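Bench notes, afternoon.
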Amino acid sequence: MTADQKIEKYFCNRCSGKTNHFVRREFEKTTNWDDALFSMRERLLIIECCGCEHLALVKKSHFSEDTWVAENAVTGEVTEEAIWDEVIYPPVSYRAPPTWFEDVPDSTLRQISGEIYKSLQTESNYLATFGSRTLIDRLVLLTVGDKGNFAKGLKALVDEGKIAAHERDILKPVIEAGNAAAHRGWAPTRDELTTILDTVEGLIHRLLVLPKLSEELEESVPARGTVPFNESAKAVAGAIAKRVVTVKDKIDSAPKDLRSIYDELETRLKSLGDKITIHPQKHYMAFRRNRNFASVQIYNQIKVVRVYLNINPDDVEIDDTYMRDVRQIGHYGTGDLEVTIKSRRDIENISELIQLSYSYS
């Protein structure tokens, strides 16, 4: 840092608070009118957080009449300070998505949550509040199914042991807050909104995310009587050491018979067209043309491959032995029809379904 390097305090999204920032570049102009009786001063800054080195753009403006006057209670000295309007790009986010956000096994929940976090950047507390109520509605649907109305869904959560009675009581003011925001024009303070989001996020994490991550953990733990550090398990062993096991790790360590099933399925999916691309995600492999038409997961412990297809389950005859309608069930990947594959013959049996899903992409 040079001796004349300017430092000012601004909010840093990465540090989640006001920190010292280097002013790397600055443009300033002043516009006068009425014979310089009034003026508008504008500053455009490129700033860099002194801690995390995050860059941001700041636009500040001050109208000459916007001032704040204070008197020192001891000395009686009167000081006058300029009031600045300030906008930061990217917008200030006073609440970041939780670290487990990408592990939410439902694309609709992730989309709604993403919109809520964006609304916080513009201090749209109304949107965030009744958006949180929408999250609860979706969570109830995914957890206990469609019970006809919200009250019955909430009762089913308790009756089926998904939540305790005291958790239902904690949820009630959150639900009422959403109703008040949507129907009575009420908006919470930032602290109240924090309570709302803490409650909703905690419930989503416990009811949806942890069960799925536990399922992933079960896949990573070697079965009793096996040797975990053989050649085929090195990829997973290294990933476990880093606390992250991806679907690619699981494919690389799959038993020989299961790996051959996955390889044949991958070959079949890629053969559908020249423009197909494969996008490895954390929990699934996405096969895409214009959009995903197949999301594939592999389960080494139970020795199955699951594929989610973009097909309306109402348009096909569901065979309960290997097919499932997952429109109201949280899962990783996109697609409303789940197909479980246990053998290479099963791939041939679902070839028409795969072709149909591809045609919709």
